[in-house]
Automatic annotation (TrEMBL):
The keyword Magnesium does not apply. Keywords: Membrane, Transmembrane, Transmembrane helix. It comes from the Bacteria. The chain crosses the membrane at residues 38-60, 72-94. The lineage of its organism: Bacteria, Bacillati, Actinomycetota, Actinomycetes, Mycobacteriales. It comes from Gordonia soli NBRC 108243. Pfam families: DUF485. This is Clumping factor B.
Length: 118
């Protein structure tokens, strides 16, 4: 426990040692695993999707130039889908963070800030 006096009702300010202890806790390791379970596959998906778009633009000119409707071609549609994908991934991450990450991180924070530590 810290030797620093806190006003009544103020959260405990964790020490460096307490932060290191929290990082090594099973709860924090679970939080990291949960984050990685979403971030790594989603990052790989988006990078592959973007690379396919760039490679099609560089090497499949005829395919990208196929007219879909008026002056709208496959290249424009795929380019706009890059934006759609970005917003979709952002929305999925926000939902994932609210549902899976925030409760776990809040529990860790509450434990660190509590005056009485187990």
């Amino acid at each position: 426990m810290s030797t620093v006096e806190h006003p009544p009702g103020a959260p405990h300010t964790p020490t460096g040692a307490e932060f290191i202890e929290a990082q090594q806790s099973p709860q924090f390791q679970d939080l990291k695993r949960t984050l990685r379970r979403f971030v790594f596959p989603m990052t790989a998906f988006f990078l592959i999707w973007y690379a396919v778009y760039v490679l099609l633009g560089a090497f499949a000119h005829d395919f990208m130039a196929i007219s879909v409707w008026g002056n709208i071609n496959v290249g424009i549609i795929l380019g706009l889908l890059q934006f759609v994908t970005t917003f979709l991934i952002t929305g999925l991450y926000v939902r994932f963070a609210n549902r899976d990450l925030d409760p776990k991180s809040e529990a860790i924070r509450n434990e660190l800030e509590s005056e009485v530590r187990p």
